[in-house]
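lol ok so funny story. i was supposed to be doing the assay writeup but got distracted and ended up predicting the structure for this chain instead. priorities right. anyway since i did it might as well share w the group, maybe its usefull for someone
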Amino acid sequence: MAGDSTWWRRGAIYQIYPRSFADADGDGVGDLRGIVEHLDHLNDGTERSLGVEAIWLSPFYPSPMADFGYDVADYCDVDPAFGTLADFERLVEEAHRRGIKVVVDLVPNHTSDQHPWFRDSRAGRGSPRRDWYVWRDGRDGGRPPNDWASTFRAVGPAWTYDPASEQWYLHSFLPQQPDLNWDEPAVEEAIHDVMRFWLERGVDGFRIDVVQKLAKDPLLRDVVEGAPVPYEDWQPAIHERLRRLRAVVDEYPDRMLVGEVYLLDLERIVAYVNSGDELHLAHNFTFVHLPWRMEAFRAAIDGFEALASAAAWPAWFVANHDNPRVASRFDDDDQGPARARAVLLMLYALRGTPFVYQGEELGLPDAAIPPDRVVDVDGRDPERAPIPWRPPSEAGPGAGFTTGDPWLPLAAEAEELAAQRQSGDPRSTLALTRRLAWLRRGEPALQSGAQRSLDAGADLLAWVRTGDDGTALLAIVNFAARSRPFAGAPDLPPTAVLALSTDPDRAPGTLALETVTLGPGEALLLRL
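and the output, tada:
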């Protein structure tokens, strides 16, 4: 759909994990006021910022924090650790003043076991809200109702027995996160009301957590080896429910839905965006799990395009709060941050919306977490380490994230990768990310232009973006650990002008395409 300038297609959506972004009150935990204080880093209207289109906030709702906010105890308030509802309203106001949209996490599959809804449900089999959650009798021998397992391996079965009512309740994650029963119409209506609560407060969209779990096999059948998991992506109910969620946001102008569709089947993922009346965007988890091989990335990118309807729009990400950082996954001692930098170019230059996890613009690696500091049940602490805003040598051990004791240790590289230090270095990953963002903002071809892949030679991923006005840009990424020559293409012009390289030592100017060679892990963007 060339020429579409919808905000959620134009530029990057930046994920903020509030606990780890910035702490304004010195208690060691990030908060909403801390986010406000750093909005200019995200977009101050100049090329000194990241020029983001929107921020996506991971949960900030009242919670016992068994799963650090994804166990929601109240959908319509702010946890005191993060501030107040007034702080949230100020955040929206300040973000909008800078042209930044605000997307918030919606967690509709489960609540905290401390949510009033579950407390009512657990009160007894006769409770009016008993059917708001999934309760079942067990099998013979005191066994759970079926063999479903929690997403968290350390938890084991996805069922917990309640002695008071002599039934089991379903939880796809922790026992403290009971699953809501979306077969009960009142549950769906309640979640719609939650959405309207935040839409009325100016949010611009929702990221829907584990959206594929909103419809499960009503017969609760056991898992059949080799078959799709029966407790997610149950059709056609899942798509009917998504259309109704979409209808709620469509009551308000210019709003958006993006879903965490944790399926490793590209065809099933694309089904969530192909109709044009469900999700606007679906996070592509086949992409985030790819090995560092050109053929794998080429298949994922071309595969989406082959399956997508005219209504579908890709969403690209390679890191988030649940997955290791790019610098730790793909880079090694020989190449330094080359691959992490190449991934940034890929995200900004591909047709689709780039989702950038906080700290990726700094090239942060995962932090080393000592055994006595581990807090997450599923091993996700390393990628959730706080952001180093200033060098610890100047700001103290909190590195500008906090004046107190950080809730998690910072990355060992905080001194050299701190945002303040990188901001003044034109060779830094932060400087590269800023250039990519503002290049995309100034090039309609990169925002909404058409895309075609090229056969560029061994280990080189290449594609051309073409705008409605005939402008064209060529992107090339070298997946090899050594230099690779660009093979060219017969329909390309003989020369191109360098728009950007991830190698700060590459000289600007006009290049003869037949002589272009990319260094190890280098990525180029060229104007044709």
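The chain has three domains: 8-109+185-438, 116-170, 449-527. The longest strand covers residues 460-466.
back to the writeup now i swear
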